Amino acid sequence: MQASQRISTILGGGSDGWEVFNRARQMIDAGTSVTELTIGEHDIRTAAPILQDMHRAAVGGHTGYASIPGIAALRDAIAARVTASTGVPTTRDNVMITPGGQAALFASHTAVTDPGDTALYIDPYYATYPGTLRGVCAKPVAVQAHASDAFQPRASDIAAAAKGAKSLLINSPNNPTGVVYTRETLEGIAQVCRDHDLWLISDEVYDTQIWEGEHISPRALEGMEERTLVVGSMSKSHAMTGSRIGWVVGPAHVISHLVNLATHTTYGVAGFIQDAALFALELGKEFETEIAEPFRRRRDLALAVLASQNVVGAVPNGGAMYMMLDITATGLSGEAFAYGLLEAHHIAVMPGESFGAAAAGHIRVAMTIEDSAFEAAMKTLCAYAESLTTQA
Fold it and tell me: What is the CATH number of the domain that holds 375?
């Protein structure tokens, strides 16, 4: 018996891009100490008060079936947060709670694409994007951003791919590049969506991690409220990655359909986790800033290290917990550089090629270890790159 085409073709017959990460984990399992700069996992755990509230809610009995769209108070809090940050009036009817941002991405594409529909996404991309699109039986089509444009997508390139497409997925602040899309970029994207009648799915899980520029939700742009679904999550903003709690914000009629989808798939999110998420949101912006601050510090540390040499270049990262580094001067691909760095110095980074063709010749560094260790790893990475150019 064979598995379904839907499941067996999720990876598209190719790599999932995680070979270097898997090699690093094999080394760790064998007893080798490895500095991991690979995945976007905070080096702190979920704050004790949030866990205490989660425990209180669970012991208090919120362990049965919870409201499938999400508990009203949490949906209201997210709606108020979105209204305050974007100026777009938002109510609980525009919000559905999901088991994390990944589930929100899957649900959003299920809502707006039918089997065989073309779904666009920007390259470089978060590694799950094309598989998510295949998982809903859409046809994934990448639109390349360019290093020469600091990975700001060109509206003209999106328009060239948009004929007959149904949706476009964007992510700002961006994983893997750390790029924050400018207003000009987003206005161009919005114009393409209006011109070609595209649904826009905006992954905004890094919206609290802004180092330069501003976060603009495209749902707030003219004519976009009724054609945009926004994906949000507590994972990055509140260091709640394992709690698996996210949301979709969009038109009320689409949210009602997503509630039907959840009824037949996830059947909602545990009530005690939703209670803890509500508690976390009520801690306010000061808490979100506290969670984001280590990445701001480490970005500054990395930029200082990079300024002291001229082999490794930095993509302008205005947000998120990552840096994309240009290592083309070494003559190696991102993958070859990552493997070499791992074997020579036991430092694990992600090859740019893991995130699409546009990031070839780059590596992604996650700023997710303690400051002094991160600074030391960056110095070693740059010294390794310089050694390669000396050998050449």
Answer: 3.90.1150.10
Q: Is 314 exposed, middle or buried (0-12, 13-18, 19+ CB in 10 A)?
A: middle
How does pLDDT run across 73-102, given as a tens digit for each residue?
Answer: 999 999 999 999 999 999 999 999 999 999
Q: Please tell me whether residues 307 and 158 are part of one structural domain.
A: no
- Domain identity same for 260 and 344: no
- Please tell me the distance from the alpha carbon of residue 237 to that of residue 255, in angstroms, as a whole number: 23
356 & 307 share domain: yes
For residue 173, is the peptide bond before it cis, meaning its omega torsion is within 30 degrees of 0?
yes
Note if the pTM is more than 0.85: yes
The span from the CA of 104 to the CA of 214, in Å, is: 24
pLDDT in tens, 282-334: 999 999 999 999 999 999 999 999 999 999 999 999 999 999 999 999 999 99
Burial class of residue 66 (count of CB atoms within 10 Å of its CB; 0-12, 13-18, 19+): buried
